[in-house]
Amino acid sequence: MQPTTRPSPVSEILAAANAVILGKSTQTRLALCCLLAKGHLLIEDLPGVGKTTLAHTLARLLGFQFSRVQFTSDMLPADILGVSIFDREQSSFRFLPGPVFAQVLLADEINRATPKTQSALLEAMEESQVTTEGETRPLPEPFFVIATQNPSSQIGTFPLPESQLDRFLLRIDLGYPDHDAERSLLESGGRREQLPALAARLGAGEFAPLQRQAAAVHVSPALLDYLQLLIEATRKDTRFVHGLSPRAALSLLAAARAWAFTGGRAMVLPEDVQAVLPAVARHRLRRVSGSHADAEDIACLIRSVPLA
User: Fold this and answer.
1) For residues 176 and 26, what is the distance between their CA atoms, to the nearest angstrom?
2) Cis before residue 142, ω within 30 degrees of 0?
3) What percent helix, strand, coil does the chain show, rounded to 5?
4) Whose CB among 182, 207, 269, 276 lies 3.0–4.6 Å from 177's, allowing a Cys bridge?
5) 3-class SS at 57?
6) H or E element that contains 185
7) Interatomic CA distance for residues 304 and 156, integer angstroms
8) pLDDT over 80 at 89, yes or no
9) What is the pLDDT of residues 229-244, one digit of tens each?
């Protein structure tokens, strides 16, 4: 009898996630790629399409310590970072950590908070640490922010500044489910009830090796040439106020490596770069008209850079 081989951890995680988030396999894979590439994820879409459920699902499947913050207009930075209180018994101040001290922080509806509160996450996202009351405290390893936001056209939203948008490696949207997926949701009564029963597919310390494997996926000089041509094309395109930065180029490379890795390949292909480019570039490219780039802008960009 032939011995059975266990599916790879990545395929197990994706299969389990797709059983909860129906009909969104590409978005689920992009979300996992973001975490494998050590990046933060922004999910923008209408309320009720599964943004929060996706964040919960990934955290549970990866076995991460999870914290959720519902952002509101009256929230203060201390509500996220923590606050010091006076302990009468010890006659000293004691720091009470905020919800940011978790491996995965779900910043739900982040653009409903004021810019002052939004900016409280900048240091955490960039350096995996927070500084409060003159003391710097490290955050758990690994540390990810998965933020959701509603479309900026909705009432009560504060647009994220460019500096904060750039700290999100990928931005995805979920969109409405297709007919079959929505029918399954209607027949089952939704998928959120499945979350408490989800078991972690990884043990402690097993995610870091996957990150290292993703970062080690081979990139040829020709592939780097192609990636650079795409980056340079954004800087020359008169539709955009400015092109992609060097940090965005590094993000594109890391995301393409993770996409190839989740596809079971040890080498990045141009198709991998094209697959992740919309999620890397759309929130970083602003049109002269003021709006961010859309899917057609990125498709035109890809068509403008021929493969050698």
Assistant:
1) 14
2) yes
3) 45, 15, 40
4) 182
5) helix
6) helix 179-188
7) 38
8) no
9) 999 999 999 999 999 9
CA max distance for the chain: 71
CA angle 179, 184, 187 (to 5 degrees): 120
Of 219, 220, 244, 221, the closest CA to residue 231 belongs to 244
User: Scanning the structure block, which residue is given the tokens 């780039």?
Assistant: 293
Which residues have CB under 8 Å from 282's CB, separation 6+? 171, 292, 293, 294, 295, 297, 298
What the block records as the tokens of 123 is 């240091």
Task: Say how far apart CA 25 and CA 18 lie, in whole Å.
Answer: 6
Count of CB atoms situated within 10 Å of the CB of 6: 7
Which one-letter amino acid corresponds to residue 72?
A: T
CB count in 10 Å sphere of residue 12: 14
Number of H helices, E strands in the chain: 13, 9
Token pair of 304, please? 């403008």
Following CA atoms 77, 80, 81, 85 in sequence, which dihedral angle do they give, to the nearest 10 degrees? 90
What is the arrangement of strands in the sheet containing 168-172, beginning at the earlier edge strand? 66-70, 104-108, 144-149, 40-44, 168-172
Q: What is the pLDDT of residues 281-300, one digit of tens each?
A: 999 999 998 888 999 999 99
Are 28 and 174 spatial neighbours (Cβ–Cβ below 8 Å)?
no
- By the 8 A CB rule, do 98 and 78 touch? yes
